[in-house]
Amino acid sequence: MSTDALAAEIQPPTDMRLSLAKSLVTNLEQGNTAEVDQLIANLANQHESVLFQEVGKLTRQLHDSLAVFGNDDLFPDLAENRIPNARERLKFVIEKTEESAHRTLNSVEEALPIAHDLEENGSNMREDWAKFIRREMDAEEFRQMSKRIESFLETVEVDAKQLNKGLSDIMLAQDFQDITGQIIRQVIELVQEMEESLVTVIRNTGTKTKSDSPKYIVAEGPQVNQEDNPDVMSGQDDVDDLLSSLGF
Amino acid sequence: MNKDMKILIVDDFSTMRRIVKNLMRDLGFANTSEADDGLTALPMLQGGKYDFLVTDWNMPGMQGIDLLKAVRADPNLSSLPVLMVTAESKKDQIIEAAQAGVNGYVVKPFTAATLKEKIDKIFERIEAA
To answer: Which residue has the higher pLDDT, A73 or A133?
Structure first.
């Protein structure tokens, strides 16, 4: 019910109040104290009784809405099954993504020293080779270089195989995306259904939502729709600009 | 800048801690420890003579911003350089962190170059002071 409609209903019939008011004025002019008190009480009662009726009506509406809450299968099902289920699924998403991230990190941590050694050995070999080309190498040094080249070529083969395996592992560790994507989509659908149900309940009970913005600064996690919010920094450059404007 | 300095990395996600740790090692800082929120980090800081704190903001237990405030309020830790590495990217939050005395602020997702730049800047400023 709109506020205007409610206000209109609370008003008692105009003519009744008018006649009471007229009689009140007359009695006041004549100084009939007892009559005046009675009339004022009457006027107040008029208003109160309509108010009580209205409160009664609201109570009944609230009761009906609560009954809908309890009887409708949707809410118990949501509370008992679907929300806990969604929670489990989201936990599974965290586990899956964490597992994949660790698998990836394991491979990277194994690959990094291999790549580093390859770089170092390669660079040493290039120096040796340059020395040889400049004819600055005696026979003994050449023999040693040949040995190093031989062992380097063997290592390169083994290392390349190892790096290949690591890269394949990293690729395979991305298989979570498919599964977690599906689960998250299901949870989004559930949240959407809940939102629609809650909107219906709110509409039926006529509750008006009021949003007070909290003054306390709290963590909000990643911002997903940055474009829509002018208060969100779009990246490190924005953050740096803001900080330097603060004298950083 | 002393490459052997003792660094505490605080993040509730172990993967993020590993990533930061690896990046730090790439930059030459191998002396790192980890904590998963402010409540575990604070006693470590109080007992451990750390030289640098890298912390996330959004964590269960004690949040990064509260850890920063606790560090600044502790006379033994108040001058510890603190770098925040976080997904919190709202203007109010960054101002809050600046007012709480953060030394650098990196928003996730970030690159190795950004991390290096911020760390260099923090220690340049400290050495200049």
So the answer is: A133
pLDDT digit string (tens) for A97-110?
Answer: 999 999 999 999 99
**Measured distance CA(B84)–CA(A111) in Å, rounded:** 29
Q: Which residues contact B58 (CB under 8 A, 6 or more apart)?
A: A219, A220, A221, B12, B64, B86, B87, B88
Report the C-alpha gap between A31 and A25 in whole angstroms: 10
Contact B32, B21 (CB under 8 A): yes
In sequence order, the 6+-apart residues with CB closer than 8 A to the CB of A164 are none
Residue written as tokens 């007229």?
Answer: A22
Query: Given pLDDT bands bounded at 50, 70 and 90, which one contains residue A139?
Result: very high
pLDDT (average), residues B68-97: 95
Average pLDDT rounded to a whole number, residues B11-20: 90
Q: Is A170 on the interface with B (CB under 8 A)?
A: no
A198: helix, strand or coil: helix
Instruction: Count how many pairs of residues, chain A against chain B, have C-beta atoms within 8 Å.
Output: 71
- Please name the residue ranges forming H helices in B37-111: 38-48, 64-73, 91-100
pTM: 0.65
Q: From chain B, pick out residues whose CB is under 8 angstroms from the CB of A221.
A: 58, 87-88
For β-strands B32-35 and B52-55, DSSP reports them as unpaired
Facing residue for A102 by CB, picked from B15, B88, B89: B15
Judge: A243–B105 Cβ closer than 8 Å, yes or no: yes
pLDDT tens-digit map of A38-58: 888 888 877 777 788 888 888
